[in-house]
Amino acid sequence: MSNVVEAKALRVQIPLDRVAAQRRSQMLTRGGLVLAFLIVVFFTVLFVAPIYWMVVTSLKTTAEVFAIPTVWWPARLMWSNYPDALNVFPFITYAANTLRIAAPVTIGTTISSALVAYGFSRLRWRGRDLVFYLVLATLMIPTWVTLVPLYILFNHIGWVNTYRPLVVPSFFGDPFSIFLLRQFFLRQPQDLVDAARVDGATHLRIFTQIILPLSRPALAVVALFAFINSWTDFFNPLIYLSNPDKYTLQLGLFNFFSQHFVNWPGFMAASVVVLAPIAVLFFLTQRTFIEGITFTGIRG
Amino acid sequence: MATRIADSGGIPLVDQPFRSNRWRRLRRGDLIPGLLFISPWIVGFAWFQLYPIIASIRYSFTDYNMMQPPIWLGFANYTRLFTEDDLFRKALANTAIYALFSVPLDLFVAFCFALLLNLRIPGRPIFRTAFYFPAVIPSVATAILWSMLLNTKGGLVNVALKAVGLPVIPWLTSPTWTMPSLILLSVWGIGPIVVIFLAGLQDVPRELYEAAKLDGAGPFRLVRDVTIPMLSPVILFNLVIGIIAALQVFAQPFVIFGGGQGGGGGAAGGPLNSVLMYSVQLYTVAFQQFQMGYAAAMAWILFAIIFSLSLLSIRFSNRFVHYE
Question: Is A228 within 8 Å of chain B by CB?
Fold first, then answer.
């Protein structure tokens, strides 16, 4: 059913795209376009080369890493680097720890930010926009200003070296997500909300039954960003976790890098393993990802 | 009468077609439900922002190591920072240099890539993904990867330089080169800026280009007189976000130089503290030396700098930024 709709939308879109593209092409001459293409290819190769090097090095022997002449592709692929690295870098444990933080953070950020965003968009009350500017202003506060007292506080109530300082704050709304969701909620038709109000629906019902179902794309963006930010966070685990059993992937990777003898193939193997889940997620959700970036950027 | 109008949030209460309570509430606004919906944020704001900010002012006037109770010092922390602390001044200067060069460089390169990717060339989605992908890589993995790539003897960067006949550069071991290394490294993460610029470019009305071309404008004038003014709000947004992020740069210098494998003998400031960054120094003061009062004072200075720079760029840009 939805495929049919999409196919129709595509058919309408193609000629429009072509017209736009033709207009755009008039910006430069044919020779200019070829030159631009070559420049883009050159820089793309520059941008991607480090990632290729990461993967290739993870399959080299230590002697091959900085060998002269440079080894572009190892004679024998050292797959054993991976099990060797995972002996000192317990990926499964760290991944499970990271998931124990990232999963509740994702849920907490999405739910709390959606609630708050509803209060800032679909309800009219005095001082609303002023308070909303305050939410945005908190984005300017550097982490460091609040970190020292928060660390002292969390230490006092026994939360240091637990996951609570990393998880609990996410249940109180994240400014950037609130901002993004508010913009999205504001685009939903107000008539729908007013009609439901006149019919006697409570705001909680309007929120859960009208606004949330209409806002799935924006909620997906918020959840995805919350998950990836939490999964790749290095700073907060570094501050709050000291027990190696509780390390996250990023903290474990840093520890492996700083506590062991130079072992580039091992470091690269561990890096590849840490990067892999994020890379898979990125390629699966690329469109959501890029939409999210552009959305937040333009409205800024 | 006038006060009643103001009370209702600017909506006049007279001459209403409906007089039912529910309708009136709808028109007047929903203060109680509104506050209930945003209550998670209110609690979070009080707990994780307001209290720490106030406490942090108080701690910044004390000597507190978390073992003994805080000792009141007055302004001593601040005077010590500016008169005695060479590492603080070094960190401040380094961070300023880093932000001064990396932010404009990243914006410029991202803008050029966005212009190129906006042209009708084949494979644009592939290129966009390629430019974006490095920004997804966790910062620790990025830092470890570049420690290897920038290795003086056999790192890929020097291999490439040698291949085109340029001299080999001691990127991470010479105090002259550590800062340029970090600044260049920041270019690898410009993917999100490119994507934001690309989206902004889609919004520039084609007619403006057509009109300018009829007036005989070439590609460079089109960019200078049409694209840049139309994109100025997006540029400002990226500038402010970029400054805030650059002044707090932490993970990459901390891992590359503090990790011990990159060079500089494992000191997080790099050789001769040539890349000692403000956040890295703050981390050392707070979480290795546990001088919490002193760290709070440092954090407040950072806040003051970020705040005034953000205000300044918004003020200054009012003259250049074009809003529709």
Answer: yes
Residue A17 and residue A99 share a domain: no
Beta bridge pairs of residue B63 = B71
Same domain, B211 and B288: yes
The confidence score (pLDDT) of residue B208 equals 87
Closest to B29 (Cβ–Cβ): which among A124, A228, A257? A124
Question: Are B56 and B102 contained in the same domain?
Answer: no
Helices (H), B118-176: 124-132, 139-149, 156-163
Chosen for mutation from A60, A133, A148, A256 (greatest number of chain B CBs closer than 10 Å) is A148
Q: Does A35 share its domain with A124?
A: no
What CATH number has the domain bearing residue B180? 1.10.3720.10
Same domain, yes or no: B299 and B246: yes
Residue A5's pLDDT is: 40
Whether residue B226 sits in one domain with residue B128: yes
- Chain A, residues 153-182, CB within 8 A of chain B, namely 153, 155, 169, 171-173, 178
Q: Rounded CA gap, B148 and A66, in Å? A: 9
Average pLDDT of span B68-78:
95
From the CA of A77, how many Å to the nearest CA of chain B?
19
Overall number of domains in chain B: 2
Q: What single DSSP character describes residue B133?
A: G
pLDDT band at residue A192 using 50, 70 and 90 as cut-offs? confident
pLDDT at B76 over 90: yes
Percent of chain A with pLDDT over 70: 89
> Does pLDDT of B203 surpass 70?
yes
Please give the residue range of the domain that contains residue A17: 1-50
What is the sign of the dihedral through the CA atoms of B143, B144, B145 and B148?
positive
DSSP codes joined into one string, A112-162 = HHHHHHHHHHTS--TTHHHHHHHHHHGGGS-HHHHHHHHHHHHHHTT-TTS
The residue in chain A having the minimum alpha-carbon distance to the alpha carbon of residue B257 is A258
| ipTM > 0.90, yes or no | no
Same-domain check for residues B44 and B115: no
* Mean per-residue pLDDT, A249-264: 90
Q: Which domain holds residue B154?
A: 78-317
What is the per-residue pLDDT across B190-202, written as a single tens digit (0 to 9) for each? 998 998 898 888 8
Domain-located, residue A285:
yes
Task: Compute chain A's Rg from CA coordinates.
Answer: 25
Mean pLDDT, all residues of chain B: 86
Q: What residue has token string 């800062």?
A: B179
In terms of domains, do B156 and B279 share one?
Answer: yes
Per-window interface: A 16-55 vs B, CB < 8 A: 20-21, 23-28, 32-33, 36-37, 39-40, 43-44, 47-51, 53-54
Q: Are residues B116 and B72 in the same domain?
A: no
Residue B121 has its nearest CB partner, among A37, A155, A231, at: A37
Q: Is residue B323 part of a domain?
A: no
| Whether residues B72 and B88 fall in one domain | no
B63 within some domain: yes
How far off is chain A from B176, nearest CA to CA, in Å? Answer: 23
Please count the structural domains in chain A. Answer: 2
**Nearest by CB: B49 against A47, A126, A138:** A138
Distance CA B167, CA B58 (A): 53
pTM to 2 decimals? 0.87
- Picking from A36, A200, A294, the nearest residue to B195 by CB comes out as A294
Residue A256 sits at φ, ψ, to 5 deg, of -60, -45
